[in-house]
Amino acid sequence: MTAYRLFSALGSGGVPVEAAMSLIGLPYEIVEAPTWEGEAEKAKVAAINPLKQIPALVTPEGETITESAAILIWLADRFPEARLGPAIDAPTRAQFLRWMTFIPASIYSLFWVRDDPSRLGGPDPEVQARIKAATAERILDCWRMMESQLTPGRYLLGDELTVLDLYVTVVSRWGPRRVRFYEAAPRMSEVVKRVDADPRLAAFWPKRFPFFEGWERLGQQVG
Ligand SMILES: N[C@@H](CCC(=O)N[C@@H](CS)C(=O)NCC(=O)O)C(=O)O
């Protein structure tokens, strides 16, 4: 089988997609493009995604899929034998779609401004700091809301791991970081810790989103 090609980066929103492809057992290659590092990195993905964002997946048939949630849902549906998402007629399907949409719409989208607060706030460092603080609070509110609406089992939607668990495990590591996520969402925290420790991903996490000393409190440290 020709490999899937994923434009992604260490610790990025491409990581849950990589984790899903690893669990499915798909051959894939990564084009490393940490777009937040500047124009040269953005240029790598521009021809595939004019918004110059990762993740972007190119299938062996040559189709491009952008949007992390769309890619994850598509993978789960396309490879049902991997059991990474509820089937279209499964009782948890509606809640699966609900939360798979909530994460990018309400949380991930805030990183467009958090990664560079001058995009909305201009050059004033005080305004930028206010944007960072306000978006951190908003993200915590979103996690609290999700926590109040879910009754996790071993995983967020029951006893089977889905791409939603992979997605939340990665996004909850971004600002305002895991320690605050643990306070906001204690029951979901048990789930993401289980995914952090999943033996099937034991070799994957150190390569693509390493756990370093103090990682639950600190930003990503590469190299
Ligand atoms: N809605 C997109 C958001 C993707 C996104 O924001 N990706 C970040 C990296 S994690 C990015 O490429 N940022 C660069 C930019 O927005 O300029 C998705 O869910 O895939």
From TrEMBL:
Q: Which InterPro entries match?
A: Glutathione-S-Trfase_C-like (IPR010987), Glutathione-S-Trfase_C_sf (IPR036282), Glutathione_S-Trfase (IPR040079), Glutathione_S-Trfase_N (IPR004045), GST_C (IPR004046), Thioredoxin-like_sf (IPR036249)
- Note the Gene3D superfamilies from the entry: 1.20.1050.10, Glutaredoxin (3.40.30.10)
* Protein's recorded name: Glutathione S-transferase family protein
Domain of life according to the entry: Bacteria
Q: The GST N-terminal domain covers which part of the protein?
A: 1-83
Q: Which PANTHER family match?
A: GLUTATHIONE S-TRANSFERASE GSTA, GLUTATHIONE S-TRANSFERASE-RELATED
Q: Where is the GST C-terminal domain?
A: 89-214
Q: What lineage, starting at the top, does this entry show?
A: Bacteria, Pseudomonadati, Pseudomonadota, Alphaproteobacteria, Caulobacterales
